């Protein structure tokens, strides 16, 4: 695929480089022609025409070479990106811990680019020495052995260049390590931005990023000095070679005359050498970057894969699932202990429904992962016979329509689809969504509640036609009645999944009697297995678990779970053995509990009709109960606004700027550089080019004197004076080039540092609505790819561009001064140049913007895929996702190929114009034979030959600078986004102990999510007293979450006020507010680092305080059991902890802060019943004097509240004690309680 086109490109490159050497020979013939009046005139015109034809042929051949080569580079980059994506889908768990999302994104965005760019330098790597060798040979023919002095200079400079190149490589490796760390941390910050805002932790994480960035800048600074020195050495080399050669030539013998022909043919050859020598630093630097990138890619692609043989199929095995002597581990890093599953022996028959139960951290989810092949199999054998579907504990959805998330690539079947929608209780949600099932689901399901996301995940599994379905606690995210509906209609013995093998991790004991088999997990071991009855007879772990659960619900009078216990009694009563078990259970649970259990049995017998009616009512009104149970969400209410078409779209297409990059973008970048560092390079490069032009004029005058003098001693210039002058110009040129390069690199590095700091600062200050409507990949593209352009690309482009501009100006001045009549040709040529450049830049700039837009979806899709990789593997969807990724990569590559094509369009035309200027200079020299000095002819044609190269280079650099300054434009767009309110307000800071009472007052409070959207909270007025416990309930969209988000000012008030202990929260800084409140969110978010940093990122508390918080959160024993205790490493996203353990860490955060106001947002949905009981007891004890606001997911959780607030359409519908509300049968709360089976 690559070899033949690359071989063709190499042949074209070789041909074009050989053609270049024809021009010095033609120059020699032209100079001879101007000095020999006897040579026929047509010879001169023939030489001029031949010179033009050769330069035109070189132009066409070289541009074809570049087009083929860059097309291959694009294909190579696309292949690398695809290979990285493929590898990411099969990484083992230990490899995933070593390669974070940020590092893998860097491999796709930066390393793939650097490696593919190197393809362009491969031919330069051998071509440059080849061209230099031929040039030296030609110079030997011209100057004789004197050229050896120049060769000696080249050889002496080689070790210096090697040393510099090696140092640059080491710095590149170091820089990429810091870049990976920075991108990894930034990825976690963007993904967990809501948690950071709620906890007011932005400052701490910003400082962590800045520390890493500071180390990265330190490496960049050293790299800048080396790059500047490398530029100095390489730019000085051609001049030193020429100086050494000329000095040796004129000093070795008085017979050696440096006439015009010898001087300018030599200069032409030195100019041919100049480009490869000048390109060598970039080639070496690029090769160093490519070697670093290749090593990083090699390490990643060579890392261990998930063992595809750990789970196999065996037709001889009759069971659907069989595990024999299984030992599994998650794979540990160095100095870490690996969490293991041990002694796993299990079989699950075809079509059976089995449950996995156990406490938090017992290994339930790990068992599912082991059966999916996600854990490392150390011993034993795992057989899974059939296709698999998987519902994870934390639902994962794609940024696609709701319907596409359910069908997930399967053929659409209307009847089947509708049955699944009904079984998953999704129809009421579809009715509410403005686009129905065509509504776009935001990134990570941002516009759905936790329960809605889980039910969509269940629908996806049901639609998949899998033989075996793994269900990791999907019922915990929904209300018990919705859970019962889903179990009966979807999962249970008579549900849509009947006949399929189902493994259900659950904390709901009411489903257990209907299980074919139950597996009990404890401390990473499968300790019990059997039917429900068998496990009760054993009186082991399971029966103890069951008794504790019944006792708890008896004490709590939990209506939903009481129904479950009645169902248990009902099923046990149906058999003789079951009655015996009930009596045993009653005796074990104690006299009072036995009485309660007996009362359940009695009530079941006497009130069976009422109970049956209530269940029937719940089934008929499932849509109502669904509305009670689901938490409202930000984006869902946003979607309601406007027409249906608009409501379907949440993530809008990224918009590209149109037209020229505005001057304020350049002004912005120059200010970031600093005024002095922006101006000085222009001055230094101009002086350097003046010195270069001066050296050539000095050479022309010397050659004129040499040819006009008959004496050995030159009249105007002696040899020593010539060498001193020529050397002086060279020293000046080199020094000013060095200063120009150094200031440019330093200035651009400062600009990159300042712009990154401002970008990070502004992103952390952006409101949550921005992150809800902009995918994380889009934001990360700014923080990674665009910042890399500022760090690595713009410094080289700006340095080269300024140098070229100065060189073009001096070249044109020299040509016009040498042969003024050429002005007639040059002026229209320059006008044409400008016109072509304008057309190109307008097109190239916009294509560059389109290319940048096309890259963002790649990284968004990539990050999304990594978050759901376990589901992708479980459903065997890897190839489908690879194809989607490749289409996105191809779309970005198409934009790049377009950019490449117009680049070639530009360069062909510009080089042709340059060739016309060369032809004009040659024709005028021929026509002016006898009137123009041969030295001037040589100077003019030499510069004319060079003007093509440097004009093309200037236009190329100008276009590249404008194309890449788009990165600054895109970053500036985010820097200028509207911020949220200030974090601190110095003139209005609350007193240090605020809030000391915890009294909250809402006064005509109103809120909306963004300007132009409908109000989600309307005219809300109430007071929550100090230490009061308030539950908030309401149907989906009622405004429950909106109210708490308003309390934290995640959304700002559209009207009215909120007072906490008499202070208007709108007047104080966000951190002064959020830092004094506590929240335990529904989705526990942890960050990579140590456990201590996750609890106390500002290091405000002592270790004693932290240990006390862990003890109260029931995590102390677990943490003490870890090798590094508080310094235990937390993986990215907390992936090395169970969901329940993550929730306990969030509880420990709240305990550590000990605010007077605590908000519970479905805080116990992901934990087992015993842990839920412990958490509730801890909250009651540790926050006894605090004001607690609980968003109710299950009504029984707020039945012991002092008061209950019922919201309806953003207004308070009811606000009273639970008893008062339940006494009024017309109240909304009574209806909700009735639906939930509490009355």
From TrEMBL:
Molecular function per GO: ABC-type glutathione S-conjugate transporter activity; ATP binding; ATP hydrolysis activity
Domain ABC transporter: 323-548, 1000-1234
Reaction(s) the record says it catalyses: leukotriene C4(in) + ATP + H2O = leukotriene C4(out) + ADP + phosphate + H(+)
Residues annotated as domain ABC transmembrane type-1: 7-289, 682-963
Keyword Transmembrane among UniProt keywords: yes
InterPro entries on file: AAA+_ATPase, ABC1_TM_dom, ABC1_TM_sf, ABC_transporter-like_ATP-bd, ABC_transporter-like_CS, ABC_transporter_C-like, MRP, P-loop_NTPase
GO cellular component, one term: lytic vacuole
Top-level taxon: Eukaryota
Disordered: annotated span: 588-624
Residue spans of biased composition, Basic and acidic residues class: 606-618
Transmembrane segments: 46-68, 118-137, 143-164, 228-251, 257-273, 665-688, 793-815, 821-842, 912-930, 936-955
Main location class: membrane
EC nos: 7.6.2.3
Membrane topology listed for this record: Multi-pass membrane protein
Similarity annotation: Belongs to the ABC transporter superfamily. ABCC family. Conjugate transporter (TC 3.A.1.208) subfamily.
Descriptive protein name: ABC-type glutathione-S-conjugate transporter
UniProt source species: Halocaridina rubra
């Amino acid at each position: 695929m690559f070899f033949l086109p690359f071989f063709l490109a190499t042949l074209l490159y070789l041909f074009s480089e050989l053609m270049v050497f024809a021009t010095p020979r033609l120059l020699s013939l032209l100079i001879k022609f101007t000095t020999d009046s006897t040579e026929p005139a047509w010879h001169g015109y023939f030489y001029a025409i031949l010179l033009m034809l050769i330069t035109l042929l070189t132009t066409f051949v070289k541009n074809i070479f570049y087009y083929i080569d860059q097309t291959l580079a694009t294909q190579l980059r696309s292949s690398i990106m695809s290979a990285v994506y493929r590898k990411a889908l099969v990484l083992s768990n230990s490899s995933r811990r070593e390669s974070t999302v940020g590092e893998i994104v860097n491999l796709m965005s930066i390393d793939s680019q650097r490696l593919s760019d190197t393809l362009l330098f491969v031919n330069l790597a051998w071509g440059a020495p080849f061209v230099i060798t031929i040039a030296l040979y030609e110079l030997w023919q011209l100057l004789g052995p004197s050229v050896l002095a120049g060769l000696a200079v080249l050889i002496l400079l080689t070790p210096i260049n090697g040393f510099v190149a090696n140092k640059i490589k080491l710095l590149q490796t170091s820089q990429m390590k810091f870049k990976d760390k920075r991108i990894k941390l930034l990825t976690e910050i963007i993904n967990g931005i809501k948690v950071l805002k709620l906890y007011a932790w932005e400052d701490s994480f910003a400082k962590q990023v800045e520390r890493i960035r500071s180390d990265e800048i330190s490496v960049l600074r050293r790299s800048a000095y080396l790059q500047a020195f490398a530029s100095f050495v390489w730019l000085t080399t051609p001049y030193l070679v020429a100086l050494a050669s000329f000095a040796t030539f004129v000093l070795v013998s008085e017979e050696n005359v440096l006439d015009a022909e010898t001087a300018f043919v030599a200069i032409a050859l030195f100019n041919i050498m100049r480009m490869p020598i000048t390109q060598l630093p970039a080639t070496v630097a690029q090769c160093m970057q490519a070697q670093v990138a290749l090593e990083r890619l090699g390490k990643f692609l060579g890392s261990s894969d998930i063992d595809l043989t750990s789970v196999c199929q065996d037709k001889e095995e009759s069971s659907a699932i069989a595990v024999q002597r299984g030992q599994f581990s998650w794979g540990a890093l160095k100095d870490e202990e690996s969490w293991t599953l041990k002694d796993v022996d299990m079989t699950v028959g075809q079509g059976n429904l089995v449950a996995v139960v156990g406490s938090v951290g017992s290994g339930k989810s790990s068992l599912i992962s082991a059966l999916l092949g996600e854990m490392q199999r150390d011993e034993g054998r795992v057989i899974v016979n059939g296709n698999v579907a998987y519902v994870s504990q934390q639902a994962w959805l794609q940024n696609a329509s709701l319907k596409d998330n359910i069908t997930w690539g399967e053929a659409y079947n209307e009847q089947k689809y509708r049955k699944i929608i009904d079984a998953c209780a999704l129809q009421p949600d579809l009715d509410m969504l403005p686009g129905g099932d065509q509504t776009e689901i935001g990134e990570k399901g941002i516009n759905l509640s936790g329960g809605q996301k889980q039910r969509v995940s269940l629908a996806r599994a049901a639609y998949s036609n899998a033989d075996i379905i793994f269900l990791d606690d999907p019922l915990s995210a929904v209300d018990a009645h919705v859970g019962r509906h889903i179990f009966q209609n979807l999962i249970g013995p008579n549900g849509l999944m009947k006949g399929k093998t189902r493994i259900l991790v659950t904390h709901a004991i009411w489903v257990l009697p209907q299980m074919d088999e139950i597996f009990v997990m404890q401390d990473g071991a499968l300790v019990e297995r059997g039917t429900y009855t068998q496990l009760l007879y054993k009186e082991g772990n399971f029966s103890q678990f069951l008794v504790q659960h019944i006792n708890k619900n008896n004490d709590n009078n939990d209506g939903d779970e009481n129904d479950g216990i009645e169902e248990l009694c009902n099923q046990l009563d149906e058999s003789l053995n079951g009655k015996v078990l009930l009596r045993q259970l009653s005796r074990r649970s104690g006299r009072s509990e036995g009485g309660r259990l007996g009362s359940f049995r009695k009530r079941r017998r006497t009130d069976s009709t009422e109970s049956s009616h209530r269940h029937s009512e719940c089934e008929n009104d499932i849509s109502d109960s669904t509305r009670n149970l689901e938490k409202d969400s930000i984006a869902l209410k946003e979607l309601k606004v406007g027409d249906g078409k608009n409501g379907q779209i949440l993530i809008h297409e990224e918009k590209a700027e149109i037209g020229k990059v505005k001057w304020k973008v350049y002004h912005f970048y120059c200010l970031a550089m600093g005024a002095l560092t922006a101006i000085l390079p222009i001055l230094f490069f101009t002086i350097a080019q003046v010195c270069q032009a001066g050296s050539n004029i000095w050479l022309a005058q010397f050659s004129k004197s040499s040819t006009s003098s008959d004496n050995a001693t030159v009249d105007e210039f002696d040899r020593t004076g010539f060498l001193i002058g020529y050397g002086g110009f060279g020293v000046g040129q080199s020094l000013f080039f060095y200063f120009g390069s150094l200031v440019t690199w330093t200035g651009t590095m400062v600009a990159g540092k300042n712009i990154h700091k401002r970008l990070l600062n502004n992103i952390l200050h952006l409101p949550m609505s921005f992150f809800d409507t902009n995918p994380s990949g889009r934001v990360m593209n700014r923080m990674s790819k665009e910042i890399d352009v500022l760090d690595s690309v713009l410094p080289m482009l700006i340095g080269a561009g300024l140098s070229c501009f100065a060189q073009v100006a001096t070249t044109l001045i020299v040509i016009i001064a040498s042969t003024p009549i050429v002005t007639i040709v040059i002026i229209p040529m320059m006008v044409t140049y400008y016109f072509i450049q304008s057309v190109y830049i307008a097109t190239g700039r916009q294509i560059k913007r389109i290319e940048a837009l096309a890259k963002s979806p790649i990284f968004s899709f990539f990050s999304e895929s990594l978050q759901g990789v376990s589901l992708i593997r479980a459903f065997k969807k890897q190839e489908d996702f690879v194809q989607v990724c490749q289409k996105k990569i191809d779309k970005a590559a198409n934009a790049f190929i377009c950019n490449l094509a117009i680049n070639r369009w530009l360069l062909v035309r510009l080089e042709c114009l340059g060739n016309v200027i060369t032809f004009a200079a040659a024709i005028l020299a021929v026509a002016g034979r006898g009137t123009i000095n041969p030295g001037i002819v040589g100077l003019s044609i030499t510069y004319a030959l060079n003007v093509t190269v440097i004009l093309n280079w200037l236009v190329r650099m100008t276009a590249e600078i404008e194309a890449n300054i788009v990165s600054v434009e895109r970053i500036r767009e985010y820097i200028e986004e509207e911020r949220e309110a200030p974090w601190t307000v110095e003139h209005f800071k609350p007193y240090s102990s605020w809030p000391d009472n915890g009294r909250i007052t809402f006064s005509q409070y109103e809120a909306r999510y963004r300007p132009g959207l409908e109000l989600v909270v309307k005219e809300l007025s109430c007071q929550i007293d100090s230490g009061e416990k308030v539950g908030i309930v309401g149907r989906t969209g009622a405004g429950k979450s909106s109210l708490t988000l308003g309390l934290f000012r995640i959304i700002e008030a559209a009207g009215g006020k909120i007072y906490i202990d008499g202070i208007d929260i709108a007047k104080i800084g966000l951190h002064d507010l959020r830092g004094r409140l506590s929240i335990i969110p529904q989705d526990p978010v942890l960050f990579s680092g140590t456990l201590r940093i996750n609890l106390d990122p500002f290091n405000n508390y002592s270790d004693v305080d932290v240990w006390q918080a862990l003890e109260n959160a029931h995590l102390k024993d677990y943490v003490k059991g870890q090798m590094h205790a508080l310094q235990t490493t937390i993986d990215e996203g907390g992936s090395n902890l169970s969901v329940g353990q993550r929730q306990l860490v969030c509880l420990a955060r709240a305990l550590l802060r000990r605010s007077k106001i605590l908000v519970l947002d479905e805080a116990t949905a992901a934990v087992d019943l015993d842990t839920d009981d412990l958490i509730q007891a801890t909250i009651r004890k540790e926050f006894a004097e605090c004001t607690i606001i609980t968003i109710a997911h299950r009504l029984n959780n707020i039945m012991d509240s002092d008061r209950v607030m019922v919201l309806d359409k953003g207004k308070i519908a009811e606000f009273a004690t639970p008893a008062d509300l339940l006494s009024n049968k017309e109240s909304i709360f009574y209806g909700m309680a009735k639906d939930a089976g509490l009355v």
